[in-house]
Amino acid sequence: MKRIAVIGTGYVGLVTGTIFAHTGNRVVCCDVDARKIDQLQAGHMPIFEPGLSDIVETSVREERLSFSTDLTAAIQEADILYIAVGTPMSAKGDADMTYINRVAMTIAEAINSPKIVVIKSTVPVGTGHRVGQLIREHRAAPHEVAMVSNPEFLREGTAVKDALAMERAVIGTSSEVAYKEIASLHETLAKTIMRTSIESAEMIKYASNAFLATKISFINDIASICEATGADVSDIARGMGLDPRIGHQFLKAGVGFGGSCFPKDTKALMRIAETNGMRFPLMNAVIETNERMRRSIVDKVNNAANGLQGKTVAVFGLAFKPDTNDMRDAPALDIIPALREHGATVKAYDPIAIPEAREVLGSRASYHTSLYEAAKGADVILVLTEWKDILQADYHRLYALMNHPAVLVDGRNCLPDMAYSAGFDIRQVGRNYEPHTLAKAASSG
Ligand code: UGA
């Protein structure tokens, strides 16, 4: 059993702390946000993440997991300090280090024994080294500080599953002792444990997210060419993915990537290149394509509806992806205001992200917890998130509730077979709608 303090109870911190408690360690998760800590202490999850509340509850009950705003006490009682505070995007596009620096100073002031300080947050290359120096320069007592970079690779919506069965744990450190400690924390969790320098571990994180984002923008550019040439991007992705060197994952064309990671990390990586005197035109193109996909779906809706003035669009799915209530950089945040600018009224549906969406979109949309309510009287349905209940909806019923001709724009190429026979004018991304071929392809794929 190790004594661990996790500083920052955002997505990454909360899941990381919970998993370490679940595997038998004593963990305190800290945050300066007293409201969030109160909520967690009362057993309420600040985020929606399948499976998380169950293991939080068990670990709290079995006294391995607790929550606190007392950072100093948590630091003093732990041997391993995981920093998982936010690194939001600064105005220049690089990662804002304010919270990381503040935590480093608090560790320096509170230090009462040797500590292993692990940076879990996504930080620019060189941060681990710099934070180590900062703590050592300001430490209240000359205890040893071993720095580690241990980047996070979990995905929202499958975070618990990912964290319990990691493909890899990357541990960047020059300290033998710290490596052994952090590696043993991951023994039962990760298929592969890889040791690197701090700088390489920091870079692996950016390079991984940037590469996945590149796959998405690549297939989205191919989708645009498919639309012009009559090819079907879903077949292209399947055909490409059968080559194991390419693989099937992250080749789903659609409205592009959102969330708290890809948009921020692609820009931050560009800044890292720039501040080191280099250009990264590939990354620039990835970002540009992603922004274009959001505009092009609005054009698609507008064209299909023959103009949007006075029309009603039912937007299906607001969260940036299914199984999360996270609205950060969700495509809906650009697309709904753009639909409004074209004169449309927007009725928005999401199974869980409505409170979060309402906070940022306000009165730009009306909000509905029923797909059928949202579709009633609409001219267009626009699918932005492939939630399970959108895949399983009764498309004949939806069609019957709408104004006719009824348009269905599928921003995720995710429609079930039934949708093709319901009577809609269907538009997808990178596929020219031909009812027979598509229905057949969908059922055989
Ligand atoms: C991503 C990475 O996948 C994680 O490995 C990483 O740990 C995390 O960022 C992070 O840095 O914290 P996440 O943002 O939760 O995870 O979501 P993804 O499943 O990667 O999806 C990102 C976006 O890409 C979503 O908007 C999704 O709809 C979109 N996407 C994904 C596509 O448009 N096409 C695809 O084929 C796959």
UniProtKB/TrEMBL annotation:
Q: Which reaction does it catalyse?
A: UDP-alpha-D-glucose + 2 NAD(+) + H2O = UDP-alpha-D-glucuronate + 2 NADH + 3 H(+)
Which residues does UniProt mark as catalytic? C261
Where substrate binds, per the record, is at F153, L154, R155, E156, K205, F250, L251, K252, A253, G254, G258, K321
Is NAD given among the entry's keywords? Answer: yes
Listed PANTHER family: UDP-GLUCOSE 6-DEHYDROGENASE TUAD
List the GO molecular function terms: NAD binding; UDP-glucose 6-dehydrogenase activity
Q: Which organism's genome codes for this protein?
A: Aureibacillus halotolerans
Q: What EC number(s) does this enzyme carry?
A: 1.1.1.22
Q: In which pathway does it act?
A: Nucleotide-sugar biosynthesis; UDP-alpha-D-glucuronate biosynthesis; UDP-alpha-D-glucuronate from UDP-alpha-D-glucose: step 1/1
Protein name, as recorded? UDP-glucose 6-dehydrogenase
Q: Which SUPFAM superfamilies match?
A: 6-phosphogluconate dehydrogenase C-terminal domain-like, NAD(P)-binding Rossmann-fold domains, UDP-glucose/GDP-mannose dehydrogenase C-terminal domain
State the source organism's domain of life: Bacteria
> Which InterPro entries would you find in this protein's record?
6-PGluconate_DH-like_C_sf (IPR008927), NAD(P)-bd_dom_sf (IPR036291), UDP-Glc/GDP-Man (IPR017476), UDP-Glc/GDP-Man_DH_C (IPR014027), UDP-Glc/GDP-Man_DH_C_sf (IPR036220), UDP-Glc/GDP-Man_DH_dimer (IPR014026), UDP-Glc/GDP-Man_DH_N (IPR001732), UDPglc_DH_bac (IPR028357)
Write out the entry's keywords from A to Z: NAD, Oxidoreductase
Q: What does the organism's lineage look like at the top?
A: Bacteria, Bacillati, Bacillota, Bacilli, Bacillales
Binding residues annotated for NAD(+), in chain numbering:
D31, K36, T87, T122, E156, K264, R328
Per the record, the similarity remark reads: Belongs to the UDP-glucose/GDP-mannose dehydrogenase family.
